[in-house]
Each structure stands twice: as structure tokens, then as C-alpha cells.
Design brief:
The structure holds two protein chains of two kinds. A two-stranded antiparallel sheet of chain A has the order 1-2. Chain A has twelve helices and two strands; from the N terminus they run αββααααααααααα. The model of chain A has no long low-confidence stretch (mean pLDDT 89). By secondary structure, chain A is mostly helical. Chain B has 19 helices and 14 strands. In chain B, helix 18 packs antiparallel against helix 19. The chains are: A mainly alpha, B alpha+beta.
């Protein structure tokens, strides 16, 4: 009779999801806040801009708001100012980045050497990069001021100039003047990046190259440059994207003038949005900027594959 | 040594704690925006009014802060919180705030923005309130014109001003030049400007504006002296023969007579005011807003103001513009905003504001006070009989276009890239296209 109270083993209820699935889902749940943040701050504005670009959306004409399909894109293709700004953008980016890179590289090579006061020079070199862009623009606008700016004053005192030069009002000088300011500001970025790369190259490689009879120039071409290639690719690519979208400097120094001589596509977009209140057209210009940068990034990704093989 | 795991949270525990902290912080964000040491509240039950103020010069910050403090102390129902925005970003910030549905309750805007914001359907129609306001009839009618759009009164004209020519009297004396009387002509103007121009000393006769909307407006004032107009019978006529003739004369001041500094094409408000203040130029066209500044720069007895010179048509015009106080349709505290705006328009606050900034009050009783009898203001006072509201206020769509297309066109003419006629033809096209 005692056996009547025997306990019968009942299998535990089976969970709806397996342990592995729950683990995976829980891992994704942790990623969700970041995904929402990225979607909200990156993806949503892009989709919204594409959506806006398909509408006639001039803020002071709310009654005329309507879907116009590719109307804004057709207008853009026919807009001579847009093509002018695009040409200006390429000039601005090409000269700014190439010369920033050249001088940044040069300064990095100098700062990589051993000399007294190197730490002080490294700090001073960083200053233009630390100062906010708008402040840089105001400082240089003052330096270039033809009537009471220090640059003309210096040139006049040195006997190199008889009549004041209007650096920011002369159609031939204004773009080189703003590009020069941007070069001054951007050199430290390349210096720091390349200096970091230079210091990561093991001395043994140089020693081996020297033993093999390589001279200074050969060591530079065959060791330094190939070893720096990943850093050069990354830094130039990011700098090109930044410069293409960088509106502050020109906006403060010249507002794109005189006569649109320094109007780049990003300042033109800003003007369409906030001066003409034409948000549909401004969105169209933004989308085109995005497309241009996407094409560039695709090329850049091709380049980075090359980088991986070098690094590997 | 064995590590005591009890003191280390797992990665999951760490993330859970982080998420919980984030949630608590997000729920409590409201207090985060409150300053630890906030300004004295007007009263326990005071309702808040958000007031946006755009700052073209630092002096205005302390002035407006003191006015707001005086208002907050004067009563216990409403507390005004002022939001200072640099002048260059003010319009953008307001547009963005209006588009997002969260504009301030009230703000200071320039009269050429009134039409634009009305176009956006953003402004409260104040017609009924203003017509019942105690000082309505004492306000000069032209001031109301600057804030009337499609028959609706949309703002208070806080202060007004018109344009006149500043002249260095001390330098004229030094060079033996005679300062003409108020009814001077274009020829007198040119003779005086040439007399002042000494490029070897970095001195020029006239500080012409080439940047910003007023580059177009100042040029237009000279066109009016030759009998030109912007609009006639509903049509844009800015490229009429008399207009072209006047603009050719105006551009010749730069290209032929070389009486302007070489930086003319990019000289904005600060450059023309500072150029005169630093002695680079000896004349410039501006509103009364820089009278007080020039008293400090060049000294009170060393300059005078004259009305614009008469052109060949024996005509002239000076454009009025006003700095206004307006309320938004989406304002959360309309009664509080109205109370604050009417307080700012009261005798003493209004007079203090206008006097400090060198601008003219819109109420006759205040404009008659002795301060405005000073010679520095005489060029402006003498311009009243031929002052008109800017013709560019006619269409809201023109405001932004003057900046984005009008200014580059005028700059191209200044730099000789296009002829004055081409410039005006293209400007007429832009204006005609945007008559909405």
C-alpha cells in the first residue's frame, strides 16, 4: 500500500523559445536603443530629405505645397548657379585637401624628428585645429580686411604693395584666399594622423632597408609611403567628405560672394533653405550632395580593400 | 589570489543598470533644463512668456536684459524668459521653430520678415488688439504701414528709422571742402566724395554697401532720386530707362570715379560703419542706428548727417524700416505676450530702447523729446517728408530673393562682370517671377 503514494515524475513545461533563441533575441534587444538612435538621427533625416525633394515646398507659400515628382531635380539640372556651385565645390575641395595633405605630411616628417622643444611645436601645430571654425573665419576675415587688416598693412610696410588689395572682394583672389584659410586650419589634422602613422612604423624595417643599401629617398618611397597608405587613404577620404560639406568658413567669410565666386553647393543649399525658404529645392540639393558623397565612398571602399591587403 | 566575483556585475547586469538609469534620466529631463540658480520669479503662479531677441550688437543684450528684469519686477502674473540669438541665425531659428510648431510666444523681428512669416501663416493677427491699444492714434501712420500685410496689423512697430548720409565735417574742413546744405545734388555729392578720396592715405569718399540685402536697397534709393520706381501699376519697372541711367551713375562711383574702398563688393553693415569710424571713408549711407556709435568713434562734433542728394529728376526717397514686436499663432501664452509687448511700447521702456540704440520712436510724443533735436539726427529728421516704406516689402517672396539673387547681381555689376542694365533686367526678372 505504501507504493500508492509514489511520486510520478512530470516533465517540466517546455519553453516557448529555446535557450539559444532567447539569448539571441536578448542580445538584439540590447542593440535596439542604438539602432533606434541611429535610425532616428541618420536614416530618418535622409528619407525625409528624399521625401521633401519630391514636393514643391516653399515655406511662404503653404497653399501651393504639392507633390511634383522629379520637378525639383529637373530645375536643378537647369539651374546655372547649381553647376557653378558644384564647380566651386570641386575647386574648394581639391585645393584645400591636397595642400592640407602636402603641408600636413611635411610638418609630420619634421615633428617626427628629434629636436629640442618638439612637444611645444606639436602643441602649437594643433592650435588652428582647436579653434572653432566660425572663429577661424572671423580671424581671417579681419586679417584679409583691405583697409585696416594686418595683412595689407604688413605688405605695405614691407614695400610690397602700393594700393590695398581687396582679398575677399576680388573675383580672382577670393577663392584662393578662403582656400588658404582652410589649408591653415586643416594642416594639423593631417599632421596628427600621419605623425601617428610614422611612429607606428618599426625602426627595424628602416634598419633592414639601410643594410640593404637603401638611401633616404628610397626608404621614403619603399618603406614610409607604403606603410602609411592605410592612414593616408582614411584621412584624405574623411577630409574630402568634411570639406565638401563644410559651409561655416565660407558662409562667415564671404557668404558665397562676391557674385557667387565662393558659393559652394553646401552654402547654396543653406541659402535656398533659409533665404529663399525653398525647402523642397534645398532638400533636392542635399540629396544630390549625398549621392555625390556616396559615389565617392564607393570608390573609397575600393581603395580600402587595397589598404587591407597592404595591412594584412 | 581568487577574485571575489560578488563585487563584479555581469555584462547583462551592467547593461540593465545602464538602461534603467537612462530611463530614469529621460523621465526626469524637465528639471535638467532648469538652471540651478534661476532668475527671481515674478510670483509663485506666474505664467512664462518666451521672448526671442536677435542680437546684431552686444549693447542690445544688456539693454534687453534690463528691460526684461524691469518688466518681471513690475508685476507678478507673468515672467518673461528672453532667448538671445545672434542676428545671423535669428531668422533661421525662427523658421525652424515655426516649422516644428514651437515658436516663442513673442519676438523681435525686422519689418521685412513680417510678410514672410505671414506667408508661412505663422503670425497672430493683432488688428483688433492694436486698434484698441491706448497709444494707437499717437503712433505715426507710416510706422503702421511697415507692419501691415493684406490689411492686417501683425506687429508693433517698436522703433523706426530711415536712411541719411553721414559726412565727416572735420575732414571736410581739413581738406577745404564745403559741406553742402540739405538740398544738395548728385553733382555736389560727387564733388565732395572726390575731394575726400586720397588712395595713397587709404581714404575714400564713400563707403558703399555691397553685401547683404541693403546693398540692393541703398542702390534703389539712388534710383528713386532719378524718378525711378520698383513697382508701377502692379508691374516691376526697376529696369526703366531712368532707373538704368541712375544705376550707371551709381556703379560709376566705383568703376570710373573710384571713390569707394576696393572692398566695396563685400562690404556689409559692419564694414561701412567701421570704415567711417576708422577714417577709411568720409561718407556713407545708413540709418540712424549708427549715430550713437559714430559719436564714440569719430567724436560728436566731427560728423553730421545729410538727407540723400537730389538726383537729376529733382526727386529723392529714403526708405523707412522698423524693428517690430510680434506674436505667433502657436504662442502658448498669448495674454502674457501681449502684456509684455504693450509694456515695451509704454513711454519709458520704448524711449529708453530707441534712445540707447539711436533709433527713432514710432510715437510722436516720444519723437518730440529734446534728444532727437541733436544735429546727429537732423539728416534723418529732414528726410521724413520724402521717406517711404521700402518698395521691396510689397511681396513676401521678394525678401529672400533679394539676398540670394539680388545681392549677387549687384555685386556682379560692381565688379564689372555685367553691365548695370543687365543687372537691372535680371533683377526685374527675379522680382516679376516672385510676385506672390
Amino acid at each position: 500500500m505504501g507504493n500508492q503514494n509514489a511520486t510520478i515524475a512530470v516533465p517540466a513545461p517546455r519553453a516557448l523559445l529555446s535557450h539559444a533563441t532567447r539569448e539571441t533575441l536578448s542580445n538584439y534587444a540590447y542593440l535596439l536603443p542604438a539602432a533606434i538612435c541611429l535610425g532616428g538621427t541618420v536614416l530618418f533625416p535622409i528619407l525625409k530629405a528624399i521625401h521633401m525633394s519630391l514636393y514643391y515646398n516653399v515655406l511662404i507659400k503653404p497653399q501651393e505645397y504639392r507633390f511634383i515628382g522629379l520637378g525639383n531635380y529637373v530645375r536643378m539640372v537647369q539651374d546655372p548657379t547649381f553647376w557653378l556651385t558644384l564647380r566651386n565645390s570641386f575647386t574648394w575641395v581639391f585645393w584645400s585637401v591636397s595642400l592640407q595633405f602636402f603641408f600636413g605630411f611635411l610638418v609630420a616628417l619634421i615633428l617626427n624628428g628629434q629636436f629640442r622643444g618638439r612637444a611645444v611645436f606639436r602643441t602649437i601645430n594643433l592650435l588652428p585645429w582647436i579653434i572653432p571654425g566660425v572663429v577661424v573665419a572671423l580671424i581671417w576675415e579681419y586679417i584679409y580686411q583691405p583697409n585696416y587688416g594686418p595683412l595689407n598693412d604688413l605688405l605695405r610696410r614691407a614695400g610690397l604693395m602700393r594700393e590695398p588689395v581687396a582679398w575677399l572682394s576680388n573675383l580672382n583672389l577670393v577663392m584662393p584666399a578662403v582656400v588658404f584659410t582652410n589649408i591653415w586650419r586643416g594642416i594639423p589634422f593631417f599632421t596628427i594622423m600621419i605623425l601617428a602613422g610614422l611612429q607606428a612604423i618599426p625602426d627595424e624595417i628602416y634598419e633592414a632597408a639601410t643594410v640593404d643599401g637603401a638611401g633616404v629617398i628610397q626608404r621614403f618611397w619603399s618603406v614610409t609611403l607604403p606603410m602609411l597608405r592605410p592612414i593616408i587613404v582614411v584621412s584624405t577620404a574623411t577630409r574630402i567628405i568634411w570639406t565638401f560639406n563644410y559651409a561655416d568658413l565660407i558662409f562667415v567669410m564671404t557668404s558665397g560672394g562676391p557674385a557667387n565666386a565662393t558659393q559652394i553647393t553646401s552654402t547654396y543649399t543653406l541659402m535656398q533653405a533659409y533665404s529663399d525658404l525653398d525647402w523642397g529645392y534645398a532638400a533636392t540639393l542635399s540629396v544630390i550632395l549625398l549621392v555625390i558623397m556616396l559615389v565617392f565612398t564607393a570608390l573609397y571602399l575600393k581603395l580600402t580593400k587595397g589598404v587591407e591587403s597592404v595591412a594584412g | 589570489m581568487v577574485k571575489d566575483d560578488a563585487y563584479y556585475a555581469s555584462r547583462r547586469q551592467f547593461l540593465q543598470t545602464l538602461a534603467a538609469t537612462g530611463a530614469i534620466a529621460a523621465a526626469d529631463l524637465a528639471w535638467w533644463q532648469e538652471p540651478f540658480l534661476g532668475p527671481r520669479r515674478a510670483g509663485a503662479a506666474a505664467s512664462t512668456v518666451r521672448f526671442q531677441f536677435s542680437v546684431p550688437e552686444p549693447l542690445r543684450i544688456s539693454l534687453v536684459e534690463s528691460l526684461v528684469e524691469r518688466f518681471n519686477k513690475s508685476q507678478s502674473d507673468v515672467e518673461v524668459k528672453v532667448e538671445f540669438v545672434p542676428q545671423a541665425q535669428a531668422r533661421q531659428k525662427l523658421i525652424t521653430a515655426v516649422s516644428a510648431g514651437s515658436p516663442p510666444d513673442c519676438c523681435q523681428i525686422w519689418d521685412n520678415w513680417v510678410g514672410e512669416f505671414d506667408g508661412m501663416n505663422a503670425l497672430e493677427d493683432l488688428t483688433a488688439r492694436i486698434k484698441g491699444w491706448k497709444h494707437y492714434k499717437d503712433t505715426v501712420p507710416v510706422a503702421w504701414q511697415t507692419v501691415t500685410v493684406k490689411g492686417k496689423l501683425l506687429s508693433f512697430p517698436w522703433v523706426v528709422t530711415n536712411d541719411a548720409i553721414f559726412v565727416r565735417t572735420d575732414r571736410a574742413k581739413e581738406y577745404g571742402l564745403k559741406i553742402p546744405g540739405p538740398d544738395w545734388t548728385w553733382d555736389d555729392f560727387l564733388t565732395l566724395a572726390k575731394g575726400f578720396t586720397k588712395p595713397d592715405k587709404n581714404q575714400y569718399g564713400f563707403g558703399m554697401r555691397g553685401a547683404g540685402t541693403w546693398a540692393v536697397l541703398y542702390a534703389t534709393e539712388f534710383l528713386y532720386s532719378n524718378g525711378a520706381q520698383v513697382l508701377k501699376d502692379g508691374k516691376v519697372v526697376i529696369n526703366s530707362p531712368e532707373s538704368v541711367q541712375a544705376f550707371e551713375w551709381y556703379i560709376d562711383l566705383i568703376r570710373k570715379h573710384k571713390i569707394t574702398p576696393p572692398s566695396v563688393a563685400t562690404d556689409g553693415y559692419r564694414q561701412i560703419v567701421e570704415g567711417f569710424g576708422r577714417g577709411v571713408t568720409s561718407m556713407y549711407l545708413h540709418n540712424s542706428g549708427s549715430v550713437e556709435e559714430q559719436k564714440k568713434f569719430v567724436g560728436e562734433p566731427n560728423f553730421a548727417t545729410l538727407p540723400l542728394p537730389l538726383g537729376p529728376a529733382k526727386k529723392r526717397a529714403s526708405f523707412y524700416f522698423s524693428e517690430t514686436l510680434t506674436m505667433f499663432k502657436a504662442a502658448k501664452n498669448k495674454e502674457g505676450a501681449w502684456k509684455f509687448m504693450t509694456w515695451l511700447m509704454d513711454d519709458e521702456p520704448n524711449y529708453d530702447y530707441a534712445k540707447t540704440l539711436g533709433l527713432l520712436p514710432t510715437r510722436q510724443a516720444l519723437a518730440d523729446r529734446p534728444h532727437y533735436k541733436h544735429p546727429g539726427y537732423q539728416g534723418f529728421v529732414k528726410s521724413f517728408p520724402f521717406s517711404i516704406v521700402s518698395p521691396y516689402l510689397a511681396y513676401a517672396g521678394w525678401g529672400g530673393k533679394l539676398d540670394s539673387e539680388g545681392v549677387p547681381l549687384v555685386q556682379q555689376a560692381m565688379l564689372g562682370k555685367i553691365s548695370p542694365k543687365e543687372c537691372l533686367d535680371k533683377l526685374a526678372e527675379v522680382l516679376t517671377k516672385n510676385m506672390a
